């Protein structure tokens, strides 16, 4: 089940963050997202130590905890996508597929001529599309 999605700009500024759980868990999920950013920065800045496939957009598992797993994706423009899930047995292929669809939705949202680059994404259409993508993967209880 997907519990949180985040889009973080190339300067680590939050562009979009959506929790699909109770408000009580939101702070915990934000903490996991921020911890995941540290892992992304370490992998990007030290490619020899972390992964031989740093040119690949999918960064894989970033930050596992007892109850959550955080996965990352890095765009060509250094925008980071972070997915937090409670499904501890999720397959990488499913996460890759999710990120591809999410990336397409993101590109459509920031291609809007009324969107200001580097600012938060406030589009209701984007939020609805994200919710649809999350539901279609069957990894969330978002309604």
From TrEMBL:
Belongs to the TRAPP small subunits family. Sedlin subfamily. One of its GO terms (cellular component) is endoplasmic reticulum. It is found in: Endoplasmic reticulum; Golgi apparatus, cis-Golgi network; Golgi apparatus. Its main location: endoplasmic reticulum. SMART domains: Sybindin. The lineage of its organism: Eukaryota, Viridiplantae, Streptophyta, Embryophyta, Tracheophyta. Part of the multisubunit transport protein particle (TRAPP) complex. PANTHER family: TRAFFICKING PROTEIN PARTICLE COMPLEX SUBUNIT 2 (PTHR12403). It comes from Perilla frutescens var. hirtella (Perilla citriodora). Keywords: Endoplasmic reticulum, ER-Golgi transport, Golgi apparatus, Transport. SUPFAM superfamilies: SNARE-like. GO terms for biological process: endoplasmic reticulum to Golgi vesicle-mediated transport. This is Trafficking protein particle complex subunit.
